[in-house]
TrEMBL record:
Gene Ontology CC: one annotated term: membrane
Pfam families: RhoGAP
GO terms assigned for molecular function: GTPase activator activity
Highest taxon in the source lineage: Eukaryota
Name the UniProt record assigns to this protein: Rho-GAP domain-containing protein
Transmembrane segments: none
GO biological process, one term: signal transduction
Domain Rho-GAP: 1-81
Coiled coil: none
Biological classification of the source: Eukaryota, Metazoa, Spiralia, Gnathifera, Rotifera
InterPro entries: Abr/Bcr (IPR037769), Rho_GTPase_activation_prot (IPR008936), RhoGAP_dom (IPR000198)
Organism: Rotaria magnacalcarata
């Protein structure tokens, strides 16, 4: 449903890119780029958070003793890693839907 909210030009470009990435995966015996690997490589790039989200997360960091800052840094790294994993899952799902003719 979110995909349908994209304007026509952006949707066409994204479908073109998905089609290309699917063609790349068809040679996975040689290039080792299965859809899973492609999603890992391109997921964070295609699904990166908006600048507004980045600005909000940066402004919410408390400035206190170094122990608290270190915990905050670890929390942020964990959150970013989890976000990247979700991005990969979304891109993988879109690629599989497109490959099966269900994303048009």
């Amino acid at each position: 449903k979110t995909f349908e909210l994209l304007n026509s030009d952006n949707r066409k470009i994204l479908l073109y890119l998905f089609d290309h990435l699917i063609r790349v995966s068809e040679n996975s015996r040689i290039n080792m780029m299965h859809l899973d690997n492609i999603a890992v490589v391109f997921g964070p790039t295609l699904m990166r958070p908006s600048k507004l989200m980045i600005a909000n997360s940066a402004s919410n960091q408390p400035s206190s003793a170094s122990g608290s800052v270190m915990a905050t840094d670890l929390d942020q790294m964990s959150s970013e890693l989890q976000g990247s994993m979700y991005q990969c899952q979304v891109v993988l799902a879109c690629l599989k839907l497109r490959q099966n003719g269900m994303l048009k």
